[in-house]
């Protein structure tokens, strides 16, 4: 998972370590041995010889000062400490930005990570290559964490406050939205809660059949009407059923639609007006990279989304969508899909993704 992105970060740490370490040590030709650095002896005059024969007491403080001067001079101090300069890292940071863009990381996110890394590194004093490597890795981890940490809804807190908690799912065809709804139903069932599904995708008969199949396998109540019925009416009936029967969560499926289809987007806005969902969740395909960000932005403009679920994260080698989407639309990722089974969904935590990228 996210192998490409992980590789690029590892390479960046290695390149910066190598470049700074190489810059801190003089070349073989430039090295001067302590013996070579001593001044040539000059023949002493008779007077100087006489004076030199009389020993001068040397205090302990004088010895200490001499040692300090010797240790703090020449190439010896150069090995003790090195300040990272802009020149040391500029080429590597440029390569990192290009590599992030190749991994479908949004431009704004790539620039933010690179700039934050630059600020952390330039001017930093380091003493040895292992310290350079460790510091660079930690600085990069911090930059990634800052991008991933987006304030927003906490699903467990919401479900404790609302009954029923009404969640409306939006997204385009082919992202695995209906299957994701089934996974979320299973997630709530593991918490001891009772969900109900709403087959509000009445645009396709196949969509109604699909969600019925999932509901039957899970043993979840489903509310549906015929093909072509008013989706808002289906959603309203599901919420009414949940309130009457004491259900905990209502999961509303909606027709997968392109974000440019104005009529279908208006239909989705009507569902929102009728049932007033507590949470509108965009379901996006992690493999589509920047396309997922563009889709989420359009849905946010049309109906306002509160959170994101990314599907197919287990097959995503690049990781661009996972790294970028929350930052770009200022909405948190709450779940990611990690496989085909109903249990293959996990709550998204920024710390988890950082560990995936740096271990």
Rg of Cα set: 32 Å
Distance between the termini: 12 Å
Order of helices and strands: HHHHEHHEHHEHEHEHEHEHEHEEH
Quickly count the helices: 15
- Summed over residues and divided by their number, the pLDDT gives a mean of 84
Percent of residues in helices comes to: 40-55%
Task: Provide a quick synopsis of the model.
This protein has helices at residues 3-24, 46-53, 60-71, 74-80, 86-102, 107-121, 129-148, 155-161, 177-190, 205-218, 231-245, 262-275, 290-302, 320-329, 350-358, and strands at residues 82-83, 125-126, 165-170, 195-199, 221-223, 249-253, 279-285, 307-311, 333-337, 345-347. The protein has 359 residues and is an alpha/beta fold. α10 (205-218) links the parallel β4 and β5 (221-223).
Secondary structure elements and their pairing?
Elements: H1 3-24, H2 46-53, H3 60-71, H4 74-80, E1 82-83, H5 86-102, H6 107-121, E2 125-126, H7 129-148, H8 155-161, E3 165-170, H9 177-190, E4 195-199, H10 205-218, E5 221-223, H11 231-245, E6 249-253, H12 262-275, E7 279-285, H13 290-302, E8 307-311, H14 320-329, E9 333-337, E10 345-347, H15 350-358
Parallel strand pairs: 3-6, 3-7, 4-5, 4-6, 7-8, 8-9
Antiparallel strand pairs: 1-2, 9-10
């Amino acid at each position: 998972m996210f192998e490409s992105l992980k590789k690029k970060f590892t390479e960046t740490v290695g390149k910066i370590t190598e470049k700074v370490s190489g810059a801190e040590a003089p070349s073989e030709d430039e090295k001067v041995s302590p013996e070579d650095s001593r001044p040539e002896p000059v023949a002493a005059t008779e007077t100087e010889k006489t004076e030199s024969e009389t020993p001068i007491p040397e205090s302990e403080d004088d010895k200490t000062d001499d040692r300090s001067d010797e240790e703090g001079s020449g190439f010896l101090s150069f090995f003790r400490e090195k300040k990272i300069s802009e020149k040391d890292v500029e080429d590597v940071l440029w390569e990192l930005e290009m590599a992030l863009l190749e991994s479908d990381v949004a431009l704004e996110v790539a620039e933010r990570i690179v700039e934050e890394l630059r600020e952390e590194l330039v001017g930093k004093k380091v003493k040895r290559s292992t310290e350079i490597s460790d510091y660079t890795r930690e600085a990069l981890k911090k930059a990634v964490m800052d991008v991933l940490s987006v304030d927003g809804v906490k699903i467990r807190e919401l479900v404790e406050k609302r009954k029923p908690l009404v969640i409306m799912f939006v997204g385009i065809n082919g992202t695995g939205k209906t299957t994701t709804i089934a996974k979320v139903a299973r997630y709530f069932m593991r918490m001891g809660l009772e969900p109900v599904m709403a087959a509000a995708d009445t645009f396709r008969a196949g969509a109604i059949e699909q969600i019925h199949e999932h509901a039957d396998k899970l043993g979840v109540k489903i509310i549906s009407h015929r093909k072509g019925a008013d989706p808002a009416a289906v959603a309203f009936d599901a919420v009414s059923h949940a309130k009457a029967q004491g259900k905990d969560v209502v999961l509303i499926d909606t027709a997968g639609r392109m974000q440019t289809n104005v009529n279908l987007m208006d239909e989705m806005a009507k569902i929102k007006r009728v049932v007033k969902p507590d949470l509108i969740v965009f379901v996006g395909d992690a493999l589509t990279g920047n396309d997922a960000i563009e889709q989420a932005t359009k849905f946010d403009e049309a109906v306002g989304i509160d959170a994101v679920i990314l599907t197919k994260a287990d097959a995503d080698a690049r990781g661009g969508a996972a790294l970028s989407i929350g930052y770009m639309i200022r909405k948190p990722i709450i779940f990611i899909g990690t496989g085909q089974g109903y249990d293959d969904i996990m709550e998204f935590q920024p710390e988890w993704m950082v560990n995936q990228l740096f271990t």
